[in-house]
Amino acid sequence: MNAAVRAVVRMGIYVGAKVYFVHEGYQGMVDGGDNIKEATWESVSSMLQMGGTVIGSARCKDFRMHEGRLKAAHNLVQRGITNLCVIGGDGSLTGANLFREEWSGLLAELVQQGLIDEEASQKYSALHIVGMVGSIDNDFCVTQRKCYLALVSALACGADWVLIPEMPPEDGWEEKMCQKLSATRSRGSRLNIIIVAEGAIDRHGKAITSSIVKDVSTECLKGESKNLESYLQIQHLYLIKYNNNNTNVFVCTCRSFENNLKTYKLLAHRKPESDNFNVAVLNVGAPAAGMNAAVRSAVRVGISEGHKMFAVSDGFEGFYKGQIKEIKWADVGGWTGQGGSLLGTKRTLPAKHIDKIAEQMRKYNINALLVIGGFEALECLLQLYEARSSYGEFCIPLCMLPATISNNVPGTNLSIGADTALNAIVETCDRIKQSASGTKHRVFIIETMGGYCGYLASVGGLAAGADAAYIFEEPFDIRDLQSNVEHLTEKMKTSIQRGLNSNENYTTDFIYQLYSEEGKGVFDCRKNVLGHMQQGGAPSPFDRNFGTKIAAKAMQWISKKLNESYRKGRVFANTEDSACLLGMRRRALVFQPVVQLRDETDFVHRIPKEQWWLKLRPLMKILAKYKTSYDISDSGQLEHVVLNRPKQSEINKGLCQK
């Protein structure tokens, strides 16, 4: 919330608006007085790393009443405020919409009571509201991450069982859950995780609480059970009113929620093993947090699809050496939360060892290949595709999942591991800034990884509140450095991000020495090279879920391609669309033939020719008080969700269907 407040204040001042804080939420708007104060640029300094909200938030009974909203309207009109940025959950945004609907009527009442004149009523006749969803429940239907905490937490931690109100369990769920727990214990597991969402119910509408689940699991396991009690405020039905056509729309489980649930079921419930096809999975390049979650997902979904799964150790180096073995369902238990690469990973490309790799493909009768890695993985798939003309062993479905902290793979906006790396960078930057909490006028030069790709420096710098980020994609010279030094003489504590290969001459040491010399008597300078700590430890929840879901989708694609290409007792696939990268393009996961990605790739510098995050860079300058322009032409579009109205009987049971 504080990051949003900071951005609203500084962007508002940048566009020439007078910006006000409303302290303590709607209560402050109703009470007025010192609760509504003008904000300055400096008033939002050093708040990025703070939790909660520095302007306060409170539930307000007064605002629910007409008289309270009338007072709030009066307080706003007195200050000439006709634009509101409301950050909150379902209740806050519903209240904001009601306030907007009543605005003209409220002004008329104020005129009638003699509190404002007719001129003020006309001048402030329109109230504009922008709502930003700020809620741990993530229960607002039109936001980008349409998911629920309990289900996504179950995916992230590899829970054995999850109980959610959107999907009440069948009768006899207690016995089935106990059978699942006993089965995992019999395979050597010493820990079971059960996630219970607040509001979970059975098919008859009876509440299922964490206490009930604990008693059931303790009895069936005859011992102490550990429940991950998720007290999540999950509401399963929302009424949204679109004012344009007065259509009442009931919104419940959306496509993303259904996909999450489908993925969880595939991974949580073991299927009978068979051996329709042999599929190998391996990691290539540098380790990235989330790789293990992807491997676990691929193995279990592959087994669910009826395949025999093989794990290759140490990438293609291990492949040509024969480090290949079958991997079972239980072998990947507990992998989701582990960092690094449990399979091992090397940067070795297959071209030099193509004969031996083909030999191993024949030996193990590999029918499909899943490669997880960064830029090297893309090069590997291209080399295997080119080898098809000489080696029939590679005329099989080939799929790549992007996994690299550098986020430099073409064909995807995001790579597995990048989120964990950003978390590590921002957390470290916060600690570095806090180390100087008792000093003034200090500049930190921070070097990030990423090679020639400036993603980590730019997005990490934006999140950490950096004043500048020097990257390869935007060339800079000594005049830019000098300009930044002059700008920093007016600041206090600040940070400068520099990408690893941003410039071969203006190195981190050079910039540090320049700032130290030019800032004498004004500020002192410190240098920090973050190094491999950016690879992070345990993967972030986002990387766990991203790796899990993208690998599941990849295995389903592989199954489809295997069935399509199986002819006369063998698999034969040599078309462009049988060697694909699965990447995230905007909000969709898209399979793209690797040969078609060549034109989008700068192979010399190992980066895509076009990178979406470059559009964010002016924001960093604006928020650091530089004079610059910002392109808002690429605006977002509202996605309207329209589902059928559920039957009353289903609502009473806590069920909601399309």
Automatic annotation (TrEMBL):
<protein>
    <submittedName>
        <fullName>Phosphofructokinase, platelet a</fullName>
    </submittedName>
</protein>
<dbReference type="GO" id="GO:0061621">
    <property type="term" value="P:canonical glycolysis"/>
</dbReference>
<dbReference type="GO" id="GO:0016020">
    <property type="term" value="C:membrane"/>
</dbReference>
<dbReference type="GO" id="GO:0006002">
    <property type="term" value="P:fructose 6-phosphate metabolic process"/>
</dbReference>
<dbReference type="GO" id="GO:0042802">
    <property type="term" value="F:identical protein binding"/>
</dbReference>
<keyword id="KW-0479">Metal-binding</keyword>
<dbReference type="GO" id="GO:0030388">
    <property type="term" value="P:fructose 1,6-bisphosphate metabolic process"/>
</dbReference>
<feature type="domain" description="Phosphofructokinase">
    <location>
        <begin position="148"/>
        <end position="215"/>
    </location>
</feature>
<dbReference type="GO" id="GO:0016208">
    <property type="term" value="F:AMP binding"/>
</dbReference>
<dbReference type="GO" id="GO:0005945">
    <property type="term" value="C:6-phosphofructokinase complex"/>
</dbReference>
<feature type="domain" description="Phosphofructokinase">
    <location>
        <begin position="278"/>
        <end position="558"/>
    </location>
</feature>
<comment type="pathway">
    <text>Carbohydrate degradation; glycolysis; D-glyceraldehyde 3-phosphate and glycerone phosphate from D-glucose: step 3/4.</text>
</comment>
<dbReference type="Pfam" id="PF00365">
    <property type="entry name" value="PFK"/>
</dbReference>
<dbReference type="InterPro" id="IPR000023">
    <property type="entry name" value="Phosphofructokinase_dom"/>
</dbReference>
<dbReference type="GO" id="GO:0046872">
    <property type="term" value="F:metal ion binding"/>
</dbReference>
<dbReference type="GO" id="GO:0048029">
    <property type="term" value="F:monosaccharide binding"/>
</dbReference>
<keyword id="KW-0808">Transferase</keyword>
<dbReference type="GO" id="GO:0070095">
    <property type="term" value="F:fructose-6-phosphate binding"/>
</dbReference>
<keyword id="KW-0418">Kinase</keyword>
<keyword id="KW-0963">Cytoplasm</keyword>
<dbReference type="InterPro" id="IPR015912">
    <property type="entry name" value="Phosphofructokinase_CS"/>
</dbReference>
<dbReference type="InterPro" id="IPR035966">
    <property type="entry name" value="PKF_sf"/>
</dbReference>
<dbReference type="GO" id="GO:0005524">
    <property type="term" value="F:ATP binding"/>
</dbReference>
<dbReference type="InterPro" id="IPR022953">
    <property type="entry name" value="ATP_PFK"/>
</dbReference>
<keyword id="KW-0324">Glycolysis</keyword>
<dbReference type="GO" id="GO:0003872">
    <property type="term" value="F:6-phosphofructokinase activity"/>
</dbReference>
<feature type="domain" description="Phosphofructokinase">
    <location>
        <begin position="1"/>
        <end position="144"/>
    </location>
</feature>
<keyword id="KW-0460">Magnesium</keyword>
